[in-house]
Design goal:
Two copies of one chain form a homodimer.
Chain A lengths: L21 H6 L14 H10 L1 E5 L4 E3 L7 E7 L2 E6 L5 E7 L4 E2 L2 E2 L2 E2 L2 E4 L3 E7 H10 L1 H26 L3 H16 L6 E3 L4 H8 L3 H13 L3 E4 L2 E4 L2 H9 L2
Antiparallel strand pairs in A: 1-10, 2-9, 3-6, 3-10, 4-5, 4-9, 7-8, 11-13, 12-13
Chain A binds a DNA duplex through helix 7.
Amino acid sequence: MSGRFRPHALGRVPSAHATQLLPMVLASPLFEAGLERRRLTPRERQKLANAATRLQLPRGHIIYRGGEPADSIFIVGRGVVISYAELASGQRRVAGFRFHADIFGLAEDGRYVNTTRAVTAVTVFRIPADAFTAILQYDAGLAFQFLCKVVDVTRQAQRKSIIVARRDAVGRIAMFLDLLRQMTGDPRASRIDLPMTRTDIGGFLNLTLESVSRACRRLAADGIVEFEPRAARISNRRRFDALVANV
Amino acid sequence: MSGRFRPHALGRVPSAHATQLLPMVLASPLFEAGLERRRLTPRERQKLANAATRLQLPRGHIIYRGGEPADSIFIVGRGVVISYAELASGQRRVAGFRFHADIFGLAEDGRYVNTTRAVTAVTVFRIPADAFTAILQYDAGLAFQFLCKVVDVTRQAQRKSIIVARRDAVGRIAMFLDLLRQMTGDPRASRIDLPMTRTDIGGFLNLTLESVSRACRRLAADGIVEFEPRAARISNRRRFDALVANV
DNA sequence: CGATGCATTGATATCGGTCAAAGATGGTGG
DNA sequence: CCACCATCTTTGACCGATATCAATGCATCG
């Protein structure tokens, strides 16, 4: 989707939050031609580490709330973080989950958009927005890494919109598991970590927690996915893939 | 949502572009001071016009299909364009609608992601991607305009996700009308153009065309919105706003 | 070991999907 | 200018799936 020419719509954008602009720039045809795979060098890693504060947070800890002034960006070191908007009705629209090496804390109009909470005990690195901007300006390599990250944001937003468009709860759960598998580990792995609650999953998929529970039980009853306390295991790959592809 | 560090996910992107544009964006005064409203100057307009081809297309014309090699970007001059993905099932997931001055034709891996079609008779301007890139690199003003546009993309994607999360068809239609009003005209106007079909609206809202029709009729029966052939008129502002806000 | 949050299961109601058919609209060509 | 045809819209009947309300079971952590 695309709006009209409305420069003022940007509002006041502190420099750090300019980073939000970049994903779209990258998604544009300008950059369509080619980048090879690349990893952080020790030097780049060190640069980031110097600017960062390491935080150890317990499960359930609120990292920031939507609407608060945004002065830092965060990178997940270990654990899982959930990002959600709280609606007037009290319902929570879950925007997504953040895993190892994911960046979060992008802002709009100088304030955080969503609330983020530690799903598990987590280690996160906090980097002041201005320091982060400064690093990116003088380190093309890091800037590039960052661009890769934010492009992923749009990609996953698209994927989410396709998942939620499905009507059947079972299909949504299957696609959700598939999404998690792709984000957190080996895309061909059969075991998938599920540290979040049914409520959180429901918030992401627009389902009630009861529907999530029933859909999971049905997948188990049909011999497609086994559920362990905080994980899922695909027991029938063929039927699982068929379910996921059935869009 | 944010993915993991997967540089290769971008596909093949010439590093030259990424490294040049990023510092430029970050270094620009835009992100230091906040931005005031700004319009295309005659010179900027001329620059774009020189690079563009003007196309007159009839209603229903397919501008490009998802998967085709992407070599140009487009700007809507007059009329409305729809952007959608065709799923394996034959269903269409409508990503959004493009109006006057909207840019579309963003690509992934060198190919268009969605299919775009003229909802009405349209005038669109086609600009080769490389020419467009060149202009942006040497014209910070235009680059800024472009950034404003693409920021709008994320903003609207978020809004769509909230709309689709609603369960009631009537509420979704109301929010959709509200969205259209904000995009196409005076946000306080009571009359809203509706050039797209019920099927197209349903594709956007994840509803069948019958459900769209019923929801519209219900809004009419309740005296909240009147529907004319290709437009809607809000007859009870208070109740309409309450419906929209009831998220 | 008790308490608290989370998951499961059941009964019922509601809402949108599906199938079907008729009605309105707009565009085209005679 | 009018008639016809294609497309879009409205309306109805029925069904199925999920939300909702309610209660029980289960694990995890002090």
